[in-house]
Structures are given as C-alpha cells and as structure tokens.
Amino acid sequence: CEILSSLTLQMSLYFNIYFFPFWWLITVNVLYVKYSILSDYYKFILVTIMILVSLTEVIRLYLGCLGNLLEKVPELAGFWLLTLLLQLPIILFLLFNEGLKIHSLERAVHIVFACFLAFQVIEAFFTLKRMVNTLAARFRLTELHRLEEQRPAPGLHSLGTASAA
Q1: CB neighbourhood size of 60 (10 A)
Q2: How far does Cα 121 stand from its chain's mean position?
Q3: pTM of this structure
Q4: Residue from 105, 116, 14, 29 nearest 68 by CA
Q5: Sign (positive/negative) of CA torsion 4, 12, 53, 49?
Q6: What confidence tens digit (pLDDT) does each residue in 46-75 have?
Q7: Which InterPro entries match (predicted)?
C-alpha cells in the first residue's frame, strides 16, 4: 500500500494556511491607505478581488489538504484548478499592474504568495499524475482479479463437456 500524498505539497499548504491571514491583513491595510488615490474602476476591481480571493483561498486550501492527505483525486484536482485558473492570475494581476499604485510591502507579500501558488501548481500536478496512475493500476488489477474469479477453472470445463458426450 503505497502512500500517494505529497509531503512537500502538504508542507506548502500548511505554511500557506498561516501566511494567508498575514497577506490578507497587509493587503487590506495597504488598500485602505491608498483607496483615496485610486480611480473608481480600480477601487471596484480591488474590492472585488479581495472578496474573491478570500473566499477562493479558504475553499482552495481545504480542498488541497483534503485531497492530498486522503488521496482523493477530485478534491486535489479542484485545488489544482482553483490555484491555476483563479488564484495565480489574480495574484499576478495584483503584482504586475502598475495602475494599482503598488506599495513595496504589498509587492513583497504578493511575491511570496505567488511563489506559494506557483510551487503548489507544479507539485499538485505531479501528485495528481502519480495518484491517477496508481489508482488506475489498482482498478485494472481489481478488474483482472474479478474476471479471474468469474471464469471457471480450465479442468472443470473440459470434464463437463467430456461427460456430456
């Protein structure tokens, strides 16, 4: 019984769980400071992003821990998709859009968060690949054993046809 979960992914998720509140507090405080100098559409975008990231991050971290520790492919795939398609593009937008008037402290925490996300995307991909391949091999072996149990033994079949003749 091989362990399929990834220790490095779990460590990254563990540290991310503690880093996220720190990131959130700094980002909200910096947003509060620079809110008056932002244009109206950037105000709307940043508030929307903060709400979206907050909700998504809680779900993402839960799915990542559940999928990795319990070796559940759907949960880990959901974690990987949320990371790749939502969180990473949003953090890169916050990191590289100069119209947001990025503060140096804000840039520093966004870089750390982006590193967490990039590492988790790569590590989760390889963990998912290993899990899927192993589970597919287990399924094939189970099906093979099931088919062998249903098939009659070769000696019994030949005796049955010889006695009928």
Answers
A1: 24
A2: 7
A3: 0.83
A4: 14
A5: negative
A6: 999 999 999 999 999 999 999 999 999 999
A7: Uncharacterised_TM-17
